[in-house]
Automatic annotation (TrEMBL):
GO terms for cellular component: cytoplasm. Catalyzes the reversible cyclization of carbamoyl aspartate to dihydroorotate. GO terms for molecular function: allantoinase activity; dihydroorotase activity; metal ion binding. InterPro entries: DHOase/Allantoinase_Hydrolase, Dihydroorotase_CS, Metal-dep_hydrolase_composite, Metal_Hydrolase. Belongs to the metallo-dependent hydrolases superfamily. DHOase family. Class I DHOase subfamily. PROSITE patterns: DIHYDROOROTASE_2. It comes from SAR86 cluster bacterium. This is Dihydroorotase.
Amino acid sequence: MYDLILKNCNIVNEGSIFESDIAIKNSRIELISKEIDSESKKVTDIDGKYVIPGLIDDQVHFREPGLTHKGEIATESKAGLAGGVTSYFEMPNVNPTTTTNENLTKKFELASTRSLSNYSFHLGGSNTNIEEIKKVDINQAAALKVFMGASTGEMLVDSIDALDDIFNYSPLIVVTHCEDPQRVTDNEKLFFEKYGNDLSAEHHHLIRDVESCYLSSSLAVDLAKKYDSDLHVFHLTTEKEMELFTAGKIDGKKITAEVCVHHMYFNESRYADLGNQIKCNPSIKYESDRLALINALLTDKIDIIATDHAPHTWEEKNQSYSKAPAGLPLVQHGMQILMDFYHQDIL
């Protein structure tokens, strides 16, 4: 006997939509078949509604440990489930940072009692933790996260020697946040000198500009090719960066690319009305970039969609531009945005 049978489903899976019934037992799908007439404790007629596999979000910030005034594993995994995300990979820039194997193990232990969905965690790279990286358990960590920009303290990897070691010796796939830190710093100084206290979110995409992204992404790709490393570049934002990646199916690629839903949804015109609410790193850029990202997704240059879910308090986001943190809370809304694109014949 099954616990539940869902009748008349439209199942979306592996590039196709087909009508079928689904039988569930002990919280697991036991059978998918055109007609299931077996005995069940409960039968529900879905009446043609879509049944979609749970999403995997490979880039989220759930803020635990150390930043739990913004969110925590329990609350954010629950939000993910509400948005159809049943598995997630979480970032290492918490407090303390996940730059040691000891701290990585502690996060897994924490999630084992608090997460409402499937989970894994990225080990974080730094300028000085190559020995920790070398001895990581590849069956535990999801990947090695390297902040090549947009971070501070030990999480910013800005030493070319450290980057060489990471790409040469990491037993994990290297996943990167790419913005050239020197270019961003120079732009920040330039714009502050020009605008002072009038600096606002409308300048964000000019400070964290196209060139800052390209300089860093091209460096990451060059290093991956130099050492024959596995590389995945997170949240690409520019048309120019698309020349760095190869179209085709993900199987067999050693260098893969990702886009986030907000970079496909917004362009720079929305800074005027949304301000710091859409301040994120890398920045939301021009309409030409937004359209290029969608085209790259459709032509298989971009392989993965994520959210980069990054919650902050309302009070934090309502500070001045220079003080307001970067990031948007999106794990609950990624599927909704993608469904909008589907109904608009964009995807």
